[in-house]
Structures are given as structure tokens and as C-alpha cells.
Design goal:
By secondary structure, the chain is of the alpha+beta class. It is built from 14 helices and 35 strands. 28% of the residues lie in helices and 26% in strands.
Length: 735
């Protein structure tokens, strides 16, 4: 039954709740049928379930991504201020600084061959028992041969900065975390430490208090006492330096803008009283670290998104002049995959007792506000996917229900309301009919369009959830004992595979831990390294003979202990390489790779694909087309006198160099496993697109390798008793 209006005592008409709702919302099927609402609700409900399922599965995939486990649950939480870390640099002068990985410093304790930046991260601080979201603003202090590093560490519980301290006894190669040196009820950063009258002082940035405070060490390096508030000014990133007859404070007033609030104050002692410079405020970039003297000149460090250096030409009570000069540090080239790929705003450089210069710098792989921007973009993408789903429903005829009228309809009578509904229905039908006539779901073209729209909506919603939950998109390296390292990538190829090689170098040179790419050129005219779009050095080693044995030739120019032998036709993501590198650093005596094989008896032995290993839940070989090795151990084994008969057979059949290496490793490690498998997230064989695969005839290839198995078993012993099971790793990387 229909509802009747209730007439008020004033004689005016009013509507019940149902009729009021009908006046606020129009239904297409009010005239001539009532199935529109139910079909729309059903379509939207099913679409919501499908989209939610896609989102849930995608989130499940994201949170099963190993790289998301890089962060510690107590620290390293996503922070809108960034994901800062600290690196160390060395040079013969402050203007020739190179990162520690370029100095080829090795450390056996941390399996870092060589040690690589960053040397301090939120993870290393958190693992030491002091939860941190990021570390920044590093300052060095030297006592004899011991280096102390003071830095800002953001507490993930209080969400404010504290001052942490670490110690190094090997000139900055490795650091021992000592704890929190200074913790106040307000945010602290920029822990500028200096000597005065045989006392050690710290002048941290506590800008929230609106003053500059000087702390004295009463139990260095962890115990500090407030000595004096020396200046009632809210200067940030300030420092004290003696120059001429005066002590000078240089800092920025954040209330005056980014570069408009740079101020200079001077005094006869660090304790004041302080007099403002006549030119205040001075135009200058915000401080970016400790000033330093070099060749009789005073230099000030500043920053925008990168560290800047200025030569101070005039600093008197009446005048100030500085000019920008080149610092000489190479800019990162690997984007988000580099720990400092997006920005750096602090550098502290000092001279060691050896005469060498050392510097510590902070860096971030993302820009400020990255978390918020990713979440906004993610929500917009999910909204776009919802609109696309709505559009598909419109084309299919499922959306024909709710459509808002203007809000000014309360005084219209029923006849006028029916007329308005009818006009809107006619317009709606015209639009729907026009769209369906152009994109008919019953035609081949229509089905194709709807398939594309469906795929697009799934892709967009996946990207949306990825932006919200998937992190900053970096494929980061994995630390071992809180330290990082690098490896050399080696590919063996020839002139017919240049297409593969160019794509290969362009992709892998962006991986965080790749230091150099070595191309073993077996045949044809070698390319010029400048032909490649590479973020790391590329070296071409031209061979006199076209031999697969060249893959393992001893090369004294390789600077890293780890070499990743990776065929130029294999494409994987950088995270797979980083996981494999981490596992190899934990077990450097093994062949750690991505393609397992299982050799089973009794004779005659038969070479079989990976599915055979899966079927028997185990492997005893790792193909060296994608394997991490200790270049010194592996190459010397391969070119030993014992391996000479095996190398000879490799040349005869132009095959089996990887099989030979597995036999040599198994023979040298009779008790422990000689191989370790890591499952890649995905892998593509690009040779199938270029048509230049070396082993194109699979059956013939397998027959040759079966002969090799028989021969190498005769020479070096068998592999059948060396089976390693899948899924034995706790991290699940070998599933």
C-alpha cells in the first residue's frame, strides 16, 4: 500500500520518512518496474567483495615480501620524516671523499667483504636494544684512535629525537652501539660536540625550547649535565666555532623561512654574553654540519636536499661573505635503492691522526612526507578503481537506481516530482543507450573492452593497496650482523646477445649491492662500456678463446669477495639478488643460487629439470647461471690441477661448466651442504625473445649433461648422497 501524507495543524503538507527519502533520491524503476535497486545493490555488493578480495590477496602478497621484513617490529616504523641512515666516507682531503665501499675495507666478523654504507641504520640501533625510527645528524668526536659518533635517533614510542652514541676502534669501519647519551622531554637533534678548556661540551638542537643549551660531559660519552643556557634564541642546526679573536654562533631562525633566517652571533667565550651580528639576518642556507678548516680557509656546510659547502671569505663583527664551492662527492645514481638516493642534509668531516680525512653523512632514500603522499595516492587509486567498476556496471545495465535530485524539492508537488523523475529517466536512458550502442558487451569488441576495463580496475586497486601498504618501493639490501656489503656481477656473453646485455646491465646496475658489472666477452667485437646505461662501472674482459671455462677465470681486478655469476638472459628483481647475497654472506662456503637440480641414482645418471627435484623434495646441485660464489675459493678450485680433466671435457662438449663447479664444491666439503637454494619471486629467460639461447635444443642439451654427470662422478665422486631438502630454512626463502 502507498503511504499518505500527514497534514499538520497549520494546514501545510509534510511527508513521512519514506516519502521524504523518495524526494531526496530518484530511482529509475519507480515508473514501470521495481528491480533497479535490487540489481544495483547486488552488483555493487559483488563488486565490493571481488575488489576487497583482490586487495586482501595483494596485501597478503605484500606482507609476504621478504623486503618488508627488513624493519624491526620495535623500530624502523614508517615515518613521514623519512628513513634516514648514516654512512662513512674517506679521502685525502675534505674535497675528495669516497664512500667506504670504494676503500675496499673488509671485515670478517660482519661478513662484509667489503664494508658498505650505511654503517648505521634504525635497524642496527634497534637490534642493539635502543628502538629507533631513523638516525641522522651525525657528529664525530675523536679520542686518540677511538672514534665516537653522536647522532639523532628518533624514538618510535615518544616520537621525539634523542641523542645516541656509538664507538669505533677501526677508523669507522664498524661501530658498537653504546646507548642514548642525552634524553630530554623535548625533541633533540644536531648533537654538536666540541672541546673547550679541557672539557667536552655538547650543543644539541632543542629548538622547541626556544634557546641554545650547552651540556658538559660528566661521564663521557653517556653522562651529560646542563651547564648553561647560553642564548635565548630559537636557532636550529647551530654551531660554535672559534675564528680570530671571537667565538661565533651560526644558526637559522625557522620563523624567518628556509633561507631568510640565517643569523650570526659572537662572543669572547662560548658561554657568552652573545652579541648579534650587524648584518642579521644574513642570507644563507641552513647549516648542514660542522664547519672545517682546510689549507688555511674556513668552510661552512649547508643543505637543501643535498649537502652544500661554502667558503667563508669574510667573518667579522661588521661583515660576512661566503661563496659556494664544489664538495666533490658523487651523487647517488640508484634512486630509492640507494640508502641516500633522495637526499642528504648533514656532513661532519674531520682529519684522523693518520692524516686521512674521514666524514660521516646522513642520507634518505625518500623525500619528506613520503608516507602521507603514498597513502593519498593509494586512496585516490582505489577511488578510481571504484569509479571504473561503477562505469562497467553502467554499461552492463546494472547501475540504474540511485541518482541524486537537487536538494531544493521539498515544496514541489507530487505531479511536478513525477515529471522531474520522468525527464531524468529519459536522459539517463539516452546516455545508457548511447554508451551501450558504442560498447556492446555482446560483441567481440565489447567483450574485449570489458576485459580491458576489468584488468585495469584490478591493476589500479592493486596499485592502490601497494601504495598504502607496500612501503616506499625500494629494493633494499639485507644486513648481516647489522652491516652491509657489495658484490660483483659477472656475465659471460658474445656479440650476438647485445640486446640481452644492454637490458641486463640497465636493470641490474640499479640493484643496491651491485658494485661492478664484469662482462666476460667470449666472441666477436667487444662493445665500449660507454654504450651501456649503467649506474655502476662496467668492465669488459675480452677472452682469447671462446670457452665456457672463462666464466670462472681468476681475475685479480675483482675487488669484492662475492661474485654473482648470472647469465645475461636471466631477468629477476633486485630483491631476489639481495636475498641471495644475504644468504651467501651467512654461508660463504656454499654455492648459493636460484636454479636447483637433483641428481639421483643408480647409474646411468640422467640430467633432469627442476620439476624432478621438486617431485623428490630436494636438490644437490645449483646451476651457476645464477649463483653466488666466493671468487677466490671457487676460481682457484676450478683452475686447480685436479679440475683439469673436467675443464677439458667442458671445452670438448661446450657445456657443463656449472656441473663441474658443483662436483668440485661437493668434493671439497664432504660433510656440510655445498649448495643452498633461494627461490626467486619471478625469473624471465630473455633469450626466448631474442632467439640466441645457447642451449636451445633441450633434449640434446640434457643428453650432453648426462654424459658430464657420469664423467664427473668418475673423476670426483658422486652427488647422489648430498641431497638438501626444500623448505628447511626458517625464513621460507627456499620453499
Amino acid at each position: 500500500m502507498g503511504s499518505s501524507p500527514v497534514v499538520g495543524s497549520n494546514g501545510g503538507g509534510s511527508m513521512d520518512k519514506t516519502h521524504g527519502f523518495r524526494n531526496r533520491w530518484w530511482r529509475v524503476n519507480d515508473i514501470g518496474g521495481g528491480g533497479g535497486l535490487s540489481s544495483t545493490v547486488h552488483y555493487l555488493f559483488v563488486s565490493f567483495l571481488l575488489c576487497s578480495s583482490v586487495g586482501v590477496f595483494y596485501i597478503f602478497y605484500l606482507f609476504n615480501s621478504p623486503n618488508l621484513d627488513y624493519n624491526n617490529s620495535m623500530g624502523c616504523q614508517e615515518d613521514n620524516e623519512g628513513s634516514w641512515g648514516i654512512g662513512v666516507f674517506y679521502g685525502d682531503s675534505p674535497f675528495s671523499l669516497k664512500p667506504i665501499e670504494d676503500m675496499n675495507v673488509w671485515d670478517n666478523k660482519t661478513a662484509a667483504w667489503p664494508v658498505a654504507n650505511p654503517i648505521l641504520t634504525c635497524a642496527s640501533i634497534t637490534d642493539s636494544g635502543f628502538p629507533s625510527n631513523f638516525v641522522a645528524d651525525p657528529f664525530l668526536y675523536a679520542q686518540g684512535d677511538i672514534l665516537y659518533l653522536f647522532f639523532e635517533t628518533k624514538n618510535p614510542i615518544t616520537m621525539q629525537g634523542d641523542i645516541g652514541v656509538a664507538r669505533s676502534i677501526n677508523d669507522g669501519a664498524t661501530w658498537e652501539q653504546l646507548g642514548v647519551a642525552l634524553d630530554e622531554d623535548w625533541h633533540l637533534s644536531h648533537p654538536y660536540v666540541f672541546d673547550y678548556n679541557r672539557q667536552i661540551y655538547m650543543m644539541p638542537d632543542g629548538g622547541e625550547k626556544g634557546d641554545i643549551r650547552l651540556y658538559r660531559a660528566v661521564g663521557f660519552p653517556l653522562q651529560w649535565k646542563l651547564e648553561k643556557i647560553i642564548l635565548e634564541r630559537p636557532l636550529v642546526d647551530a654551531f660554535i666555532i672559534q675564528h680570530g679573536e671571537n667565538y661565533w654562533i651560526l644558526g637559522s631562525d625557522p620563523n624567518r623561512g628556509v633561507n631568510g633566517g640565517f643569523e650570526i652571533w659572537y662572543s669572547s667565550t662560548p658561554f657568552g654574553p652573545w652579541t648579534p651580528h650587524k648584518k642579521n639576518p644574513v642570507s644563507g642556507a641552513r647549516n648542514g654540519g660542522r664547519p672545517f678548516f682546510y689549507n688555511g680557509n674556513l668552510y661552512r656546510l649547508g643543505h637543501d636536499e643535498l649537502v652544500l659547502v661554502f667558503k667563508i671569505e669574510v667573518l667579522t663583527i661588521d661583515s660576512y661573505k661566503e661563496v659556494k664551492v664544489d664538495l666533490g662527492i658523487d651523487k647517488p645514481t640508484k634512486g630509492k635503492n640507494a640508502w641516500n638516493g633522495a637526499r642528504s642534509h648533514h656532513l661532519d668531516v674531520q682529519r684522523l691522526r693518520t692524516g686521512q680525512w674521514i666524514a660521516v653523512a646522513d642520507g634518505d632514500r625518500t623525500l619528506y612526507g613520503d608516507v602521507t603522499s603514498r597513502r593519498v595516492i593509494g586512496c585516490l587509486l582505489i577511488l578510481a578503481a571504484g569509479l571504473l567498476v561503477f562505469f562497467v556496471g553502467l554499461l552492463l545495465g546494472f547501475i540504474k537506481c540511485l541518482f541524486p535530485l537537487t536538494h531544493n524539492i521539498k515544496k514541489r508537488n507530487d505531479a511536478l516530482l513525477v515529471w522531474e523523475r520522468l525527464k531524468l529517466r529519459l536522459r539517463w536512458n539516452q546516455v545508457s543507450s548511447f554508451l551501450r550502442s558504442k560498447i556492446n558487451p555482446n560483441t567481440v569488441v565489447g567483450k574485449f573492452v570489458f576485459t580491458i576495463l576489468l584488468i585495469a580496475s584490478i591493476a589500479i586497486i592493486s596499485f592502490g593497496f601497494g601504495y598504502i601498504y607496500g612501503g616506499n618501493g625500494a629494493e633494499k639490501p639485507y644486513p648481516v650482523n647489522d652491516h652491509f656489503s657489495q658484490f660483483t656481477l659477472l656475465a659471460m656473453t658474445y656479440d650476438a646477445r647485445m640486446w640481452n646485455l644492454k637490458m641486463y646491465i640497465n636493470h641490474y646496475s640499479r640493484c643496491a649491492s651491485v658494485r661492478e658489472i664484469l662482462v666476460v666477452w667470449n666472441k666477436g667485437k667487444p662493445p665500449d662500456p660507454s654504450e651501456f646505461n649503467s649506474m655502476v662501472p662496467v668492465r669488459i674482459r675480452v677472452e682469447e678463446k671462446n670457452s665456457l671455462n672463462n666464466r670462472f677465470r681468476i681475475d685479480p681486478l675483482i675487488k669484492t669477495k662475492a661474485v654473482l655469476e648470472l647469465d645475461d638472459d636471466i631477468m629477476m628483481n633486485c630483491d631476489d639478488l639481495e636475498r641471495g647475497f644475504k644468504v651467501w654472506r651467512e654461508t660463504p662456503g656454499r654455492l648459493v643460487g636460484f636454479y636447483p637440480r637433483l641428481v639421483t641414482g643408480p647409474p646411468p645418471l640422467k640430467y633432469q629439470p627442476e620439476k624432478h627435484a621438486r617431485r623428490h623434495n630436494g636438490y644437490n646441485m645449483i646451476l651457476t647461471g645464477a649463483v653466488f660464489i666466493d671468487r677466490q675459493v671457487a676460481f682457484e678450485r676450478y683452475w686447480s690441477k685436479e679440475a683439469e680433466p673436467g675443464r677439458k671435457m667442458v671445452d670438448e662438449v661446450f657445456n657443463c661448466e656449472d656441473v663441474l663447479m658443483n662436483f668440485l664444491y661437493a668434493n671439497a666439503t664432504p660433510s656440510d651442504p655445498s649448495v643452498e637454494y633461494i627461490k626467486p619471486a619471478w625469473a624471465i629467460d630473455t633469450s626466448k625473445f631474442s632467439g640466441v639461447a645457447i642451449s636451445g635444443n633441450t633434449q640434446a642439451h640434457y643428453r650432453v649433461r648426462s654424459r658430464c654427470l657420469e664423467k664427473f662422478t668418475e673423476l670426483y665422486g658422486g652427488l647422489t648422497d648430498r641431497k638438501v631438502e626444500f623448505r628447511r630454512r626458517k625464513d621460507g626463502w627456499d620453499r
